[in-house]
Amino acid sequence: MKLKGLPHKFLACLLTLVISNSLYSAEALKVGVVSPITGATATFGQENVNGIKLAYEKIKKAGGKKFDLVIEDDKSDAIESTTATRKLINIDKISAMIGEPTSSLALASAPIVQEAKIPFITPTATNAKVTQVGDFISRACFTDDFQGVVMAKFAINTLKKKKGLVLIENTSDYSKGLAKSFTDEFLKMGGKMASTEELTYAAKDTDFQSLMRKVKRANPDFIFVPGYYVEVGLIIKQARALGINVPFLGGDGWDSPKLFEIAGAAVKGSYISNHFAPDDKDPVVQNFVKDYKKVYGVNPGGFAALGYDALGIMNAAIQKAKSTKPADINAELVKTKDYQGVTGKITFDANRNPKKAAVVLEAKETGFVFHTKVNP
What is the dotted CATH code of the domain comprising 27-142+280-356? Predict the structure, then answer.
């Protein structure tokens, strides 16, 4: 590049521009996102990212400290999740991270983020162990300890069912943790298990005939399945085909339109605990639903709402922080109090878990509808 003959004023302006751009690049703030956009839990990740992007556009319009989003697909795989996390930290040089929405993959990536001292918030990983990884790990959702208690009380107090059965996905931290919290509370309240045998299945199983025959012999009043939507849909469909007509109960892992595509009308009359209901009359919820439908053409689910809230909480910490340093952002993040999200008013406890309400949804033939709200 030849600069000879250019006016001195132009050269001075050019030099100033180069210097200021270099300073800006050095101080640029990046927020990483790791989510399963493809793979077995893709609808979770896609909804999660949709909610994050919607929040990001709103944040940009509001002004304040600016940041860029760097989004990585972990393909619903623990190894991919850790690889994506390391890339964001070591190559993209992120200052904060919105973590994996499922518990097992969040538990895979959280130790890496904790070691790097990067503030991390998972939108929807409900396993209690996630925030126990360290003081840089937070969450926007309630935990399985609370979710399990909600559904145990619902089974006994609302459905008046006292003989239950629990089916557990044997490699899922989410499924095992939620099963334990449900079972502990259910038995404490006087409920009984229809079988002493632990009934389990594996992720990606498609044939549940043998398991369903065991269920039928046990003759429960209801069946609690704390799993994810693909296997749950197949379990319910095959159960109904064998004449098992008792209610199925579950958690937020059922929250996907794919469940209804797989199970069809068989899912009708089931109930789940969740973080959000698009038909909740709360004005905050309805404004979010309106904005989401305008962009994506469909109603948001809980994973979209919590993705939206997770970035909103992180942004609030970024705006309050004394600098763009990760430690300063985390110092504000852990102090989150009375943040008004679409999934409720959020205040972190000493372990960076939010105190907030849960909703119980009822499955109709084509989707879930709001049934009731349960406060902590």
Answer: 3.40.50.2300
| Whole-number Å distance between alpha carbons of 374 and 272 | 12
Instruction: For residues 46 and 203, give the distance between their C-alpha atoms in angstroms, rounded to a whole number.
Output: 20
pLDDT value for 28: 67
Longest distance between any two alpha carbons in the chain, whole Å: 92
Question: What confidence score (pLDDT) does residue 27 get?
Answer: 52
274, two tokens: 């969740």
User: Could you tell me the residue ranges of all domains in the chain?
Assistant: 27-142+280-356, 145-274
Q: 3-class DSSP state for residue 371?
A: strand
d(CA 269, CA 368): 10
What confidence tens digit (pLDDT) does each residue in 129-177 have? 999 999 999 999 999 999 999 999 999 999 999 999 999 999 999 999 9
The candidate with the shortest Cα–Cα distance to 67, out of 333, 231, 312, is 312
Assess contact for 88 and 115: CB atoms under 8 A: no
The answer to whether the beta carbons of residues 234 and 262 sit under 8 Å apart is: yes
pLDDT for 36 equals: 97
Q: What is the CATH number of domain 145-274?
A: 3.40.50.2300
* Predicted model pTM: 0.83
- Using left for φ > 0, alpha for ψ between -120 and 50, and beta otherwise, residue 368 falls in beta
**Distance between terminal CA atoms of the chain?**
66
pLDDT at 216 over 90: yes
Do 146 and 358 meet the contact criterion of CB atoms below 8 Å apart?
yes
Ranges of H-type helices in 63-188: 78-90, 103-116, 144-153, 173-188
**307-328 residue pLDDT tens:** 999 999 999 999 999 999 999 9
Helices (H), 321-373: 326-333
